[in-house]
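pasting for ref
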Amino acid sequence: MSALGRRRESQDEEDYWMGSKVNRNKFNLFDDEVTVETAETLAKSKKLLTQFEDEDVDTVNWDDTPVSSEAADSSPISGVSARVSFTPSSLDSTTPTVQYSKSQEKLHSLTSPSSARSLEDEIPSYTSTSSGSKNQEEEVQYLRRALKKARELKFSPDDTIRKMILGEPYSLEVFRSKEEKLQLLDKAIQVHDGNAITAVVLFLRQTIKPSLFNLELQRRPVAVNHYLSYLRAHYDFKELGDVLGMLNRTEEAAILKYKQAIGAPDVRGKMNALRGCLKAHFIHEPDLVNEAHLVEQHAALLERQWPIEDADSKAEAQGDPVFKQYPRKVSILNMPLITTLYYCCFYHGRDAENLLTSPLAIKKQHQLSDKQYMWTALSARSRLKHWTGIEELLTAKGWFGSTKNVSVIGFDKVCEILHKTSAPNDVLSKYMRMIDGSERRLNLARKYKCHEVVVETLVHLRDRQELQTYASKLPPGSPGLKTAQDALRSSTIKWKT
């Protein structure tokens, strides 16, 4: 056929389809209702019949990509093809009848109930992975839409703080600008709710620059106090020290570092930490001069305790008689200063002053008072039953080489210590006679049952009646009774009337 003829035939077909001979309303493939006549007319079309004759035209993979006919025939699950024919009954019910090709028959045999393996068994990994990823992606998309919607809503600081106080759901992420965040913090401070203030401060710390956060925090002392309390409760000492230093609260920062230093489990580590803390936070601060002295004393005490403990533990292991008679109950490490002094007075009371164990060296270095030293040393020697050592402590040199008994804590306290350690009656009575004040001496002598001192005091007071009453209560043959009887028979004593 010539080109002119082919062109004329094409023009005739186009005129036929586009002309009035065909009712286009009845032949619309997108209409919801399809009549029998329309289906028959469609079947007569050469082009559509050609499409239905090709079995593998509609062969597709599971991902809707076309495959070749060979792949469709070789694998029962690689692709499907279908031939659709319309029957009058099916057209009336608008349900097409599907006729399967060979590849579809294989797939139908796999998916039928009588088959030993199902389609899910053939592709289990694909189904689970695909559905899980899809669900996760849908959830992420939903959350993004919810967050976008929440950001679009207008949340006021008053409403948000009210929800925080009432325990209702709230969101701080909707406040984007610095001004909105600071308004939120000011509102929390205004209502005096500590939890709300802390929550907003932490939100600011996470969402604005550190320099800006520190600047705005300094302008709000109430927020600073709540933030510091939060850091202390959560043991965030590094951040706490930085904030205190930023606020120029040097005393609090120094005490914080001191607490961290003494919390070291190892003694050597504690000594090094104390020295470092002393140099960094105490020495260069004029307002912390007294505290610096105390930290220095603490470090010096640890440096003294360490070698003493090392030497005494070795001596105890080697069977030293003193440690065998009086075994050590605890280590001297980390003990207070007075306890360390008592320990050295007990085990090293006569050591020279140039030794670390010398009680006098401890008194001098740590600037202990005479009363502190006397009470501690007297208690240690009294427990050791070292009465001559007690005499040495209570003896002082007078004018022209003379000696006299002196007690900076008072002889009443000396008698109290001696009585607690069950000192002999003659030793106790000796120092009881040195108590100033007749009434005070008489009361303590009666309390500690120093009968001779009681009788001597009553005679000194010339109280004959009270002496007779007291003598009647004394056991027969006791030294106190004999002294009382001699005083009552004496004619040189002028008794009170």
